[in-house]
């Protein structure tokens, strides 16, 4: 009887290890070591007197702030990991207007940023546009 119980315990342990390994492999596939290039571009046509200010941070890091003149950009690389938030939030300020948005969110952007993993934002007077090829832009939201 002890032998049967021991074999049963070993089989349970082995199957648990296999399940954990399969889960980790699946998570690695979803949140793998792929790098995503995130770029925020000042698309204003005339803001020479008032720059577009951007500040980006996540739970793990603070990228700091920048004042962007026309056509300037702020960019970084995101490397999604299982143990991190995989989320970068940015706050944009132009004159007295302020807007926060999710510049990168792994569960949303792993497919949306396309096979080249380009996640670009162009901020203009009338809203925030997203593109994964920097040719075709789609308005995501207003100020």
TrEMBL record:
Kindly give the InterPro entries that the UniProt entry links to this protein. Self-incomp_S1
Chief subcellular location = secreted
This protein's source sits in the domain of life called Eukaryota
Q: Does this entry carry the keyword Iron?
A: no
Q: Where in the cell?
A: Secreted
From the record, give the transmembrane residue ranges: none
**What keywords does the record list, in alphabetical order?**
Secreted, Self-incompatibility, Signal
Q: What is this protein called?
A: S-protein homolog
Name the species this protein comes from: Canavalia gladiata
């Amino acid at each position: 009887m002890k032998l049967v119980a021991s074999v049963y315990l070993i089989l349970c342990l082995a199957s648990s290890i296999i399940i954990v390994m399969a889960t980790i492999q699946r998570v690695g596939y979803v949140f793998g070591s792929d790098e995503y290039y995130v770029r925020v571009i000042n698309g204003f046509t005339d803001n020479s007197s008032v720059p577009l200010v951007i500040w980006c941070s996540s739970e793990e890091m603070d990228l700091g702030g920048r004042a962007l003149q026309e056509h300037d950009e702020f960019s970084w690389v995101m490397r999604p990991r299982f143990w991190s938030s995989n989320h970068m939030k940015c706050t944009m300020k132009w004159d007295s207007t302020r807007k926060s948005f999710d510049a990168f969110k792994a569960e949303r952007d792993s497919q949306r940023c396309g096979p080249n993993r380009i996640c670009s934002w162009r901020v203009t007077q009338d809203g925030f546009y997203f593109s994964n090829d920097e040719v075709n832009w789609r308005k995501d939201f207003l100020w």
